[in-house]
């Protein structure tokens, strides 16, 4: 895209930090960021915190941390400042009051002195008549002089926008085209509360104008009050920005709007709509960005893998889709796996290290670098890494007895195969895929086994698992240690116990002994001494 032909935009993300940061917020911030970076413009973070009862400082910090985790940076904001500081609406109270008074002077707003009790009675009467709830306009009829006097007398009041009662208003959304609404269906909304703090309807419009915002990309929850916002801007005589209202997120079932109330059940299933949860569950920011970007936008009908730089280059408002998008966590897993496989091994090692440590493993950096490429293609989230590769950092492994019996083999056959493999591997100077795989394949052929039968026995013995990274690469990482003396010592313990060794080898426990009679951490087999009969 030729940047010389693009007019730089000024966009903003203006959340209300009253709760946790969810996917919807992440997507809105992302699209604003992409448009700014693509056009060489500016992206502003602005905090809508005039609802002081619900405002939460921890939520604001979570918001900032979550956006930083995603790789989204802003050019102006509460933490870095800028030419339009302050960027907290609660610190811009006088600016909004000045503009509210201007609207009153121009006849586009008025003081309202109705008490909450009176408003509640009005709503009840409207509900009885099955009328839409709306302000009945009582204070709209007051003369400016009477209203001014009551304000001077200290009477509690709010300021309402004076919506035209006749005609209609037509607004234009880039995704939905023109929308026409009859003015009598638009309420006289409160724009300044009794505490003097402006509501979003006024504050956001004033800030967008003063900060020269050219494009407003926001959620579709603002569509019902879109005409009101246009009325306010037009009352001041300001130029409107380009309006883009994004699609809704639906529940994974596709039935009903996704909401925060659904998060509890999602967490039980191992998913979440909150960005900090996704991080702790082992999702990459790259995977989350890729997944989120495609819930409401597409580049074409087949390209699906995008880095943040790719998105900056290819994003287009014209490719946004207003249709609701169902949240599909299977696709998140898919994209996360793609981005894990796209990481440098050293980067992957750095990212999975905390997950190993949080599950109690003492991780050696050099070994982790060797382990990382072995599990890279086999994990979907970073949280999968300890499950797939934890045995690399365990002193002992504890396979299930049944898993140590080869497929379509008896315990005695499995024990014989294991002993033969043990003898061959013990004689190797070093275990690598090159030195170990071919002898094991030859042994399987000699014993009349399929390679998978023998490899399965070895896999369980070495890793304690039936599924693992490639067997011989795994054995090479774990390393080869002398264990003949240990094997002999344990065998003598059996002899002293009076157990019939011939019969023992045909038993399941005997097979376990044959498999585990060796020193801890060997790549060939793992020492197992915790079975009760070994202590006789």
Query: What is the CATH top level name of the domain at 92-245?
Result: Alpha Beta
Name the shape in a single word: elongated
Mean pLDDT across all amino acids: 88
User: In the CATH scheme, what's the topology name of the domain at 92-245?
Assistant: Rossmann fold
In CATH, the architecture of the domain at 92-245 is 3-Layer(aba) Sandwich
List unreliable stretches of 5+ residues: 482-536
Helix content: 40-55%
Counting DSSP H or I runs of 4 or more residues, the number of helices is 22
Computed over alpha carbons, the radius of gyration is 34 Å
Could you give the distance between the termini? 78 Å
The CATH superfamily of the domain at 92-245 appears as: HUPs
Amount of beta strand = 5-15%
> Helix/strand-derived class?
mainly alpha
Brief digest:
With 536 residues, the chain is mainly alpha-helical.
Describe what you observe in this structure.
Among the domains are: 92-245, HUPs (Rossmann fold), CATH 3.40.50.620; 345-393, Helicase, Ruva Protein, domain 3 (Orthogonal Bundle), CATH 1.10.8; 401-535, Arc Repressor Mutant, subunit A. The protein has helices at residues 23-39, 57-70, 93-105, 116-128, 144-152, 200-210, 226-236, 263-268, 275-280, 285-293, 308-314, 329-341, 345-358, 365-375, 384-389, 411-427, 433-446, 451-463, 471-478, 484-497, 501-505, 508-516; strands spanning 10-13, 42-45, 109-112, 158-161, 168-173, 177-182, 190-192, 215-218, 242-245, 249-250, 325-326. The longest helix is centred in the first third of the chain and has 17 residues, at 23-39. The protein is 45% helix and 8% strand. Helix 7 (226-236) links the parallel strand 8 and strand 9 (242-245). Mean pLDDT is 88; it is low at 482-536. The protein has a 3-stranded antiparallel beta sheet. Strands 1-2 form a two-stranded parallel ribbon. The chain has 536 residues and is mainly alpha-helical.
């Amino acid at each position: 895209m030729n940047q010389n032909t693009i007019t730089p935009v000024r966009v903003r993300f203006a959340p209300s930090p009253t709760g946790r940061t969810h996917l919807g917020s992440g997507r809105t911030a992302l699209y604003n960021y992409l448009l700014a970076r693509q056009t060489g413009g500016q992206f502003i973070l602005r905090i809508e915190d005039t609802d002081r009862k619900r405002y939460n400082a921890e939520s604001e910090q979570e918001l900032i941390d979550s956006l930083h985790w995603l790789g989204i940076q802003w050019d102006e904001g509460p933490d870095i400042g800028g030419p339009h500081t302050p960027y907290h609406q609660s610190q811009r109270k006088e600016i909004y009051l000045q503009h509210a008074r201007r609207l009153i002077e121009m006849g586009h707003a008025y003081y309202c002195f109705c008490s909450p009790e009176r408003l509640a009675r009005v709503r009840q009467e409207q509900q009885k008549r099955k009328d839409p709830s709306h302000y009945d306009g009582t204070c709209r009829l007051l003369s400016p002089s009477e209203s001014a006097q009551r304000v001077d007398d200290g009477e509690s009041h709010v300021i309402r926008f004076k919506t035209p009662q006749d005609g209609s208003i037509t607004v234009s959304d880039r995704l939905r085209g023109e929308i026409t609404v009859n003015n009598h269906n638009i309420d006289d909304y409160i724009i300044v509360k009794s505490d003097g703090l402006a509501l979003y309807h006024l504050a956001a419009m004033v800030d967008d104008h003063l900060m020269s915002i050219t494009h407003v990309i926001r959620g579709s929850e603002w569509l019902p009050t879109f005409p009101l916002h246009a009325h306010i801007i037009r009352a001041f005589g300001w130029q409107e920005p380009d309006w883009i209202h994004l699609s809704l997120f639906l529940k994974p079932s596709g039935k009903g709007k996704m909401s925060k109330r659904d998060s509890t059940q999602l967490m039980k299933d191992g998913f979440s709509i909150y960005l900090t949860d996704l991080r702790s569950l082992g999702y990459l920011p790259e995977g989350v960005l890729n997944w989120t970007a495609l819930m409401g936008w597409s580049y074409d009908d087949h390209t699906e893998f995008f880095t943040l730089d790719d998105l900056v280059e290819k994003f287009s408002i014209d490719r946004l889709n207003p249709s609701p998008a169902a949240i599909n966590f299977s696709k998140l897993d898919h994209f996360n796996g793609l981005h894990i496989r796209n990481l440098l091994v050293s980067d992957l090692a750095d990212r999975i290290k905390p997950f190993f440590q949080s599950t109690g493993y003492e991780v050696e950096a050099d070994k982790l670098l060797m382990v990382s490429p072995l599990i890279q293609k086999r994990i979907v989230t970073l949280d999968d890494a300890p499950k797939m590769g934890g045995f690399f950092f365990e002193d002992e492994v504890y396979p299930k007895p049944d898993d140590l019996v080869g497929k379509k083999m008896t315990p005695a056959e499995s024990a014989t195969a294991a002993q033969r493999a043990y003898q061959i591997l013990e004689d190797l100077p070093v275990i690598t895929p090159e030195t170990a795989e071919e002898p094991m394949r030859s042994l399987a052929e000699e014993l009349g086994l399929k390679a998978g039968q023998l490899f399965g026995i070895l896999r369980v013995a070495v890793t304690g698992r039936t599924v693992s990274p490639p067997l011989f690469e795994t054995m090479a990482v774990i390393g080869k240690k002398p264990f003949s003396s240990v094997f002999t010592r344990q065998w003598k313990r059996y002899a002293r116990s009076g157990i019939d060794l011939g019969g023992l080898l045909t038993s399941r426990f005997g097979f376990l002994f044959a498999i585990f009679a060796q020193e801890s951490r060997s790549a060939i087999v793992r020492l197992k001494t915790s079975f009760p009969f070994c202590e006789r």
